[in-house]
Design a protein that fits this description.
The longest helix has 20 residues. This protein is of the alpha/beta class. The protein has a single domain, classed as 2-enoyl-CoA Hydratase, Chain A, domain 1 (Alpha-Beta Complex). Helix 4 packs across helix 5. The chain is built from 10 helices and 9 strands.
Length: 273
Amino acid sequence: MAGEVVAARAALEGPDRGIVRVALRSEGRLNAMSRAMWRQLRSVFESIQRSADARCVLIEGEGGAFCAGGDISEYPAFRFDPRGLRDFHENDVWGGLSAMLACDVPIVACIDGACMGAGVEIASCCDIRIAATGARFGAPIARLGFPMAPREARLVAGAVGETTARQMLLEAATFSAAEMAQRGFLSRVVEPALLRAQALGTAQRIAALAPGAARLNKQTLRALKAQDVPQTPAHQVQEAIDTVANPDPYAYAASAEHREGIAAFLDKRPPNF
């Protein structure tokens, strides 16, 4: 079954009034994000942004995992060409993430199991993150022979902190929910049996408050965050991202280590870098 990102319409009355439930669903793949799922994520959040009934979003993965990363089975079809790789990251992935970041409706993440790579990126777009004690976090893509795309790296580093981002990307470190709470990424950690109730309760409290004020608060916080790089003009920040380490940050597409990392994963063997 192909993966999908699905949203249930906001309830118009009752305790769940205004709550939109978004589910990441990819059976047998720990909700790994396919290209189609990234596009669906964008469509879902653009629709939520336009909805006058939406007061809070509750996003979660199905089947005991949040999201284990990207769907690597698709990668050989496009990742080894710089143009295809750029299109994937700049349009598919960033299209989904930027739609979440631009959404003025508060977003609560309900995180269980694996939250890796793409999962960390999606969680980084959420306002409140609640995780089960057994959740694991990381972005061990160095084992696959490729770096994190510049925009995505800036997003993740801003959410998890630079020290944690460096550990995730440079040593392929993974972290427990307790560690991520200590590092400020998670709002709280709860027992697995309480996770959904806790996350839903948070969404209900948000949805019961003034929705216009919530949207304005998100707009204000977004504007403040855009000024996080002091005394550096926005265009210079973007230029630095666009030219990081190479005039084309996707020039590594056809590199031997990129091919080896993905081939090793698909072959279920250790990579030989």
